[in-house]
Amino acid sequence: MSITPETARKVARLARIRVEDADLPALARELSGILNFMEQLNEVDVAGVEPMTSVTPMRLRLREDRVTEGEMAARILANAPDHREGFFAVPKVVE
Amino acid sequence: MTLNSLSIAAARDLLRKREISAVDLTMSCLTAIDAADTLGAFVHRTPDLALEQARAADARLAAGGAPDLCGIPLGIKDLFCTRGVPAQAASNILRGFRPEYESTVTARLFEAGAVTLGKLNMDEFAMGSSNETSCYGPAVNPWKVDDRRLTPGGSSGGSAAAVAADLCLAATGTDTGGSIRQPAAFTGIVGLKPTYGRVSRWGIVAFASSLDQAGPMTKTVRDAAIFLQAIAGEDAKDATSAALPVPDFEAALTGDIRGRRIGIPREYRMDGMPAEIERLWSEGAAMLRDAGAEIVDISLPHTKYALPTYYVIAPAEASSNLARYDGVRYGHRATLAPGEGIVEMYERTRAEGFGPEVRRRIMIGTYVLSAGFYDAYYNRARKVRALIKRDFEAVFAEGIDAILTPATPSAAFELGAQASADPVAMYLNDVFTVTVNLAGLPGIAVPVGLDAQGLPLGLQLIGRPWDEAGLLAHAHVLERAAGFVAKPARWW
Predict the structure, then answer these.
(1) Is B155 an active-site residue?
(2) pLDDT beyond 80 at B421
């Protein structure tokens, strides 16, 4: 499977990582190399095998539906690059 | 012998007898750290906090009944959130981040009275096998045979370098594909990855959640047992932590493995494996046989597919986990040009904050999870993962107690040696360790010998699920038989 620079652009966009146009061919080559390595998996007979969902058999535990922690807005915002009036601040999203 | 070179077990006994104080022990480590800048092991130091904790430990020791780790100075991998102390996962995207909370592992260590000396270098987001993807620059292996600077391995390279150089008595590591065991082998120390679910992942920066597990990096097997005891067990904050009783790991070190069956998997005998590694492996098997174990040839037929499986699953999970680094809640935020909006903010922030290997893995993960490729890559890898696990279940069902393999395909290599190689070449470092994560098993690297150059080599033992006690017992016998006592000659 070979990745084209156009596919690389799409993947970068989906991953929300800016990649300059000039860097797309090199990125495409790198991704192709890694994907080629993964092609070996096509040799394996996986008929009838269920994809693993949990490496150890475990049931998801339920807990009582009640508030256990809270009232710590200042601590939650303490590391924010920008916050105002108790909220995370971001560039305008809706015109 | 200086205090910082003590094992946990030896220091514990001296502290309890009040023959040494936790403050003196901590000072000895702090002095060693200050003289070891060239190793690049400690990236955030907390001497004031360490001395405060040491004084509290001394008071607790004086009162009697203190836990095993009371007064023991440790290093903490930068992947662990530590309240008020930087936790950066060796990434520029988390520069300046000071968690408002404490990981369960470090909380348990500090409740037990352990002393924190600071945070340790690692590969960025634990993605790497040489500590070279770190935003701080690489940690350096204290072992050296000529003028080359060698890697301590990765991703827990700072932890390995610090323990091997006696900068701390032990350190935390994390292991997603070999990140505890490979650096332990490269530096002549012990590294234990517990069964998936044995140790809480809460408060540890997530890389691949179905594979990540924290564990001890120590000078001896006994120390690994003591350390694991302190951090193991169910945690309400991690739904994947197991509600199973935690046995007494140190008591399991009986020295008696007579009648145990040790499997030697034929698929781990790789083409091009260095003769020294092959010889070490045979010697290790002979040591266990001499101790009364039965050595059995076994087959794990899907072994060769473990690396490609891992390099689908781990990046897929990473692409999802690392989506949270968007410049909104913590860490780096890019400066925007006029007219740019929130999408540009995400894209610039992530391009500036993540290093090249992390960007690459996020994009691989994004690709294998994207519509049209999900079945061909991600689902197929999850099916092969099920087969890899089944291989282990089959040999354990046949009565195998533990499996002996090499820990790494080589001794420590030179920093920069693989810089120009393609990323897949670096991935091969994990060839013996990654199966263990995929199957959720416990594994331990034990130093067994030196290669012809004089660099440490380790062997790996793999245990049954939840049988860290049995695994440690085997490792203890191997450690004693190998009698590995070499230490790096101090050059730093």
Answers:
(1) yes
(2) no
